[in-house]
């Protein structure tokens, strides 16, 4: 998880829980020192007096009682607080990327080109987020009509340790009747039309010097080049899909534009970023009606507010989910339940749970163990039930086998059987 800035004060400038605990610790420490010194003087004053063993033990017990209580108090204050602080995730940085710019006009329009329209929308999105989420730092890849190479845009996001990357574009099509909005996440295209959109946006690298070296021989015009995206790690896919869905839902509610849905394709600007990321096509500049909408101040505001509202919805869901996970992780330490599951896949890359690979099976569970992602079906405390379930699963996954879990960690099946007296 990227580094997050610590918040120094709560609302209205009042001290945070951490600050209050630190204050109590300082007071308690000062009292401990005073107590220790006074007891030390008492021991010294009585060192020449012959005391029985019981009296000596009493004095020494008093000498070390307060320091020991202090250490226990420190542990109590820091333990749960630190655990919660480490697991509670807060979205603090967003990078907004206005596509194209400078000598790269993007899709041509009869009024304005894509580069000008998306810059206006991007700046309005940033203003909305700043107004409604003052705790979030908004970073732009460009704020003026300048050309920024695709790899530089990704660098800006990565260097700033962004929590979300939003690349804003407008679409174009030879068929002027095509209209609507669509939001893309990183992945392999599932249709020729998705591939064509990716080709169009990736062609921005042709404006860069030595683009072949910078992008390791990638040719934006060649369909073969897009095979690399089928091999890439689908990191952050689940979060990206959540935000993309929120964008399309808010477009539906706020703009009245046709919802063309959430799609996958191989975009270089998304491929290079290491956080949840989307590319938004906020309308078709080739459609005369939508071109007027995209050029109007009211249309740009509606699009920007929809994206900003989607950001707020996504932020709330992600942070609430994080708190739930933090609570679950604290409770998991006290659980000793052993369960048997049927493993059907293992990969170094994440596989979406709704992927066709799982052949329609529901309740697919993902386990990130070391550098591998493992996927299981079912969960049973009884081993015989797990075996019966495995037989059914093997119709779709011939290599499926049983694995045992204790406290969300795998343990040998033999050990699990022994501990549950099922041998």
Give the % helix. 40-55%
How do the strands of the widest beta sheet line up side by side? 2-1-3-6-4-5
> How many helices?
12
Cα end-to-end separation: 41 Å
Structural class: alpha/beta
Low-pLDDT runs = 1-14, 80-87, 189-195, 224-233, 324-335
| Rg for CA atoms | 29 Å
Name the beta content range: 15-25%
List the helices and strands and how they pair.
Layout: H1 17-45, H2 53-87, E1 93-98, H3 114-132, E2 137-140, H4 150-159, E3 164-171, E4 181-186, H5 192-202, H6 211-214, H7 237-254, E5 259-265, H8 268-271, E6 277-284, H9 288-295, H10 297-332, E7 338-347, E8 365-369, E9 372-380, H11 383-393, E10 401-406, E11 409-411, H12 413-419
Parallel strand pairs: 1-2, 1-3, 3-6, 4-5
Antiparallel strand pairs: 4-6, 7-9, 7-10, 8-9, 10-11
Helix pairs in contact: 1-2, 3-10, 7-10, 9-10
Top keywords for this entry?
alpha/beta, five-stranded antiparallel beta sheet, 11 strands, 45% helix, six-stranded mixed beta sheet, disordered N terminus, 423 residues, 12 helices
In words, what does this structure look like?
It contains twelve helices and eleven strands. By secondary structure, the chain is α/β, with parallel strands linked by helices. Helix 1 packs antiparallel against helix 2 and helix 3 crosses helix 10. The longest helix is centred in the C-terminal third of the chain and has 36 residues. The chain is flat and about 75 Å long. It starts with 16 loop residues before the first helix and ends with a helix.
Brief digest:
This protein has helices at 17-45, 53-87, 114-132, 150-159, 192-202, 211-214, 237-254, 268-271, 288-295, 297-332, 383-393, 413-419; strands spanning 93-98, 137-140, 164-171, 181-186, 259-265, 277-284, 338-347, 365-369, 372-380, 401-406, 409-411.
């Amino acid at each position: 998880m990227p580094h997050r800035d610590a918040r120094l004060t709560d609302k209205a400038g009042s001290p945070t829980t951490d600050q209050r605990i630190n204050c109590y610790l300082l007071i308690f420490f000062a009292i401990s020192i005073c107590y220790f010194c006074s007891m030390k003087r008492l021991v010294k004053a009585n060192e020449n007096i012959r005391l029985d063993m019981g009296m000596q033990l009493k004095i020494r017990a008093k000498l070390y009682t307060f320091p020991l209580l202090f250490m226990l108090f420190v542990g109590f204050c820091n333990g749960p607080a630190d655990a919660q602080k480490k697991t509670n995730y807060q979205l603090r940085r967003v990078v907004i990327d206005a596509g194209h710019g400078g000598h790269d006009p993007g899709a041509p329009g009869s009024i304005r080109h894509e580069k000008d329209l998306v810059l206006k929308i991007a700046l309005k999105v940033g203003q909305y987020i700043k107004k409604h989420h003052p705790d979030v730092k908004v970073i732009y890849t460009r704020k003026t009509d300048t050309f920024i190479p695709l790899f530089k845009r990704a660098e800006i996001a990565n260097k700033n340790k962004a929590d979300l990357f939003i690349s804003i574009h407008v679409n174009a099509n030879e068929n002027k009747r095509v209209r609507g909005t669509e939001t893309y996440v990183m992945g392999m295209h599932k249709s020729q039309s998705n591939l064509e959109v990716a080709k169009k946006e990736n062609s921005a690298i042709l404006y860069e010097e030595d683009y072949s070296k910078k992008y390791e021989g990638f040719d934006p015009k060649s369909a073969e080049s897009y095979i690399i995206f089928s091999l890439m790690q689908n990191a952050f896919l689940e979060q990206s899909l959540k935000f993309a869905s929120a964008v399309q839902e808010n477009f539906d509610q706020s703009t009245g534009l046709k919802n063309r849905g959430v799609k996958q394709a191989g975009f270089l600007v998304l491929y290079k970023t290491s956080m949840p990321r989307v590319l938004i096509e906020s309308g078709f500049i080739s459609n005369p009606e939508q071109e007027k909408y995209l050029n109007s101040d009211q249309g740009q505001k509606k699009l920007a507010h929809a994206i900003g509202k989607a950001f707020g919805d996504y932020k709330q869901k992600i942070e609430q989910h994080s708190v739930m996970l933090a609570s679950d992780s604290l409770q998991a330490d006290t659980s000793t339940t052993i369960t048997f599951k049927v493993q059907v896949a293992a990969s170094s890359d994440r596989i979406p749970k709704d992927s066709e690979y799982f052949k329609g099976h529901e309740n697919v569970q993902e386990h990130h163990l070391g550098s591998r992602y493992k996927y299981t079906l079912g969960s049973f405390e009884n081993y015989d039930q797990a075996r019966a379930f495995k037989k059914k699963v093997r119709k779709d996954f011939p290599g499926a086998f049983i694995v045992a879990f204790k406290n969300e960690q795998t343990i040998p099946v033999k050990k699990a059987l022994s501990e549950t007296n099922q041998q």
